[in-house]
Design a protein that fits this description.
Blueprint lengths: L13 H20 L3 E2 L5 E3 H7 L5 H6 L1 E4 L5 E4 L4 H10 L9 E10 L11 E10 L4 H17 L5 E7 L6 H13 L7 H9 L10 H7 L11 H16 L5 E2 L11 E9 L6 E8 L3 H4 L7 E7 H6 L13 E5 L2 H16 L4 E3 L6 H10 L4 E5 L1 H5 L2 E6 L5 E5 L3 H9 L1
Helix pairs in contact: 1-5, 5-9
This protein binds zinc ion (2 copies).
Length: about 425
Amino acid sequence: MEIKAIRGFNDILPDEIGKWQFVEKNAREVFEGFGFSEIRIPILERTELFSRGIGEATDIVEKEMYTFTDRSGNSLTLRPEATASMARAYLEHQLYTFDPVAKLYCIGPMFRYERPQKGRYRQFYQIDAEVFGVENPMVDAEVIVMLVRFLRRVGLEKLELQLNTLGDRNCRPRYREELKRFLMNKSFQLCEDCQRRLQTNPLRIFDCKVETCQEAIADAPKVSDFVCSECQKHFDKVKEYLEMAGLEYILNPRMVRGLDYYTRTAFEVVSYQLGSQNAVAGGGRYDNLFQEIGGLEIPGIGFAVGMERLVSLLPKDKVFVSYPHLFIAALGEEPLKEAYRMINQLHLDGIRAELDYEGKSLKSQMRRADKLKARYVLILGEDELKRGKAALRNMGTKSQEEISIDKLSEILKSKIL
Ligand SMILES: [Zn+2]
Ligand SMILES: [Zn+2]
């Protein structure tokens, strides 16, 4: 029986990978320009890191985590997001003793047991960037500016930055109570999940897709009307710094973000490309996360970009696959040996070259060169080889010229690089 991949787990094949590499390369360049360093964290963590960090009363922790018991009886979880792990690493290695400000990014797979659908997988990829140790709203704006700059650089268009403030420990409890009171009168309209959320985490009802829940919450009080003066001041500064950077935004008072740990600034970047509305990235400030996972009182802010979504929105006319510069069609035993020797040199010279290992006919080798989309083909026969010559064919123009083999690298470099 043929073994297939697990449902919801996806292969990214060679003809797709160029897009992923393009996105990753640009993320590294943009983020490092802003002073960020990469961090690589484990895929597996203790379950309590997420249950405490993300919050027990969230969909992720309640029903989406890949949790299992290992052979020693420890409860482990495949990371459903990166922020909690990055915060754990920052505390564990006391990165704050080197510099209280840490700017970190991480690229890799996350795991959530969600219903698989088109473009959504149980193993999905995120780019995460986080700043730990700064409370100043200047850094909120800077992180958002970096995100938008990155998305524009990879070619995304029609982006909209949505902004909200979620309050903090001082003011959010009052809002929660107010929201609860408002929804109590409409609880008959709420779905089963939201009935429960009403008791445990009423803000999550904003994220519910059920229509009657959406109707129930339509006229609900807004969190932004309940924030304390400190939170309001912070939010005003964030907006001021965004304006200074020339970044437009719209206020979305209904955006609460899925996770418990967000405080104050919350944001999402939405793309209106392809005629529909797609959230490409989101994030926010989380000044209580570190305490939840047993650490010091350290502020943090960051975002996650969904790579599957981002890759699907890349410009359609851009070529992301790299094709061979040269294909050597060798005819006969000696020419094949010579081709092997030449290719090893060409690779050192930075030329992407391929050959045919099987000694097939010229016609079949030309067909393969065509299929691989090689830009040039070098036809190397016994007689030409004796004279130190070969035919170089431009596959685009179909023109052909005889060249000296010892000049090949030089000639190709002048044409290609
Ligand atoms: Zn609901
Ligand atoms: Zn507040």
